[in-house]
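Thread: S-adenosylmethionine complex, take 2
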Amino acid sequence: MKDTLFKSDKINGKFKFDEKVAGVFDDMLSRSVPFYSEVQQMVADLAGKYYIEGSKVYDLGCSTGNTIINLCKSIKDKNAPFIGVDSSEPVINRAIEKIEGRGLSNRVDLVCSDILDLDLSDAGIVIMNFTLQFIPPHRRLALLKKIYAGLSKGGAFLLSEKVLENNPETSDLFIEKHYDFKREMGYSELEISKKREALEEVLIPFTMEEEFDLLKEAGFKNCSVFFKWFNFASFLAVKD
Ligand SMILES: C[S@@+](CC[C@H](N)C(=O)[O-])C[C@H]1O[C@@H](n2cnc3c(N)ncnc32)[C@H](O)[C@@H]1O
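Output below.
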């Protein structure tokens, strides 16, 4: 279904992953996140490369299940346990429908839970696509430390985020490039500005430097950027 949530003059309030968002989420993601499907493919490809036989694969903030569906193709081990976690019931219900529709229910465990309450263990791959940015900043380090502790040696953490630059002018320019992308995708000025207001204090991006510092402080010594487009970046962090 097409995302028209911010089209009317009505006040929407703060952004929530509710039933209304769930109904249009796939359209919203593909028209709001530049190179969304390419990033999904890169994540699936890297996950296939770093997967450790017998280990678990976590997708934290799995939303409607797009990443997990790709992972089921790139990770060939039919016994690999896939665990998708999301705190929004309406959103994860879409994932359940999609995973069932593709006959993948026997391979995937979908859990409706706050990531902050989750216990991770024996992980070969942990993915967080565009979700850490929604975690309160003061809780991010503890979460990343938990992810690091739950990963097996040689396992990988794949993180995608909206990011800022150190220089505020460059940051503003990159944010404007993102709005250009949304205009090209058919969003109106009203929709763009209303969504921006709704996301204020809900989606809190870090700078590239802060992301690297966080990863390093959590324990990851081996961190790289595998994708960057203006104010979007994807990181690969491997546990040595
Ligand atoms: C932008 S979406 C993620 C998109 C998805 N990873 C993808 O690549 O298609 C962010 C998701 O994180 C979930 N989320 C936000 N905070 C969460 C939390 N504390 N625990 C679990 N899920 C959370 C939201 O419900 C939402 O589905």
